[in-house]
TrEMBL record:
<dbReference type="Pfam" id="PF24731">
    <property type="entry name" value="DUF7683"/>
</dbReference>
<dbReference type="InterPro" id="IPR056100">
    <property type="entry name" value="DUF7683"/>
</dbReference>
<protein>
    <recommendedName>
        <fullName>DUF7683 domain-containing protein</fullName>
    </recommendedName>
</protein>
<feature type="domain" description="DUF7683">
    <location>
        <begin position="5"/>
        <end position="74"/>
    </location>
</feature>
Length: 81
């Protein structure tokens, strides 16, 4: 199984999921240095809100975030392939 990483994007007013953005250049070890995951989540399977240094990291890779109207979460799921 393959682990897929993406941003789940929610509208701030309605809390509805409005977009899923695939992350094609996910570097687990680099991101673990930014997030500092708990011992129970070493592979970053939990969802993390994109803010602060995590937001800055992904902006450095070319992603942009509209935090005034949306909330972004770094999430993952397993693909069957």
């Amino acid at each position: 199984m393959k682990v897929i990483r993406q941003f789940n994007v929610f509208d701030r007013e309605t809390d509805k999921l409005v977009e899923e953005i695939l992350i094609t250049d996910f570097k687990l070890e680099e991101i673990k240095g930014v997030i500092r995951p708990s011992k129970h989540d070493p592979a970053l399977y939990d969802c993390y809100e994109v803010e602060g240094s995590l937001k800055e990291y992904f902006e450095g890779l070319g992603y942009s975030f509209d935090l005034e109207s949306k909330i972004y979460f770094l999430c993952c799921f397993q693909d069957k392939e």
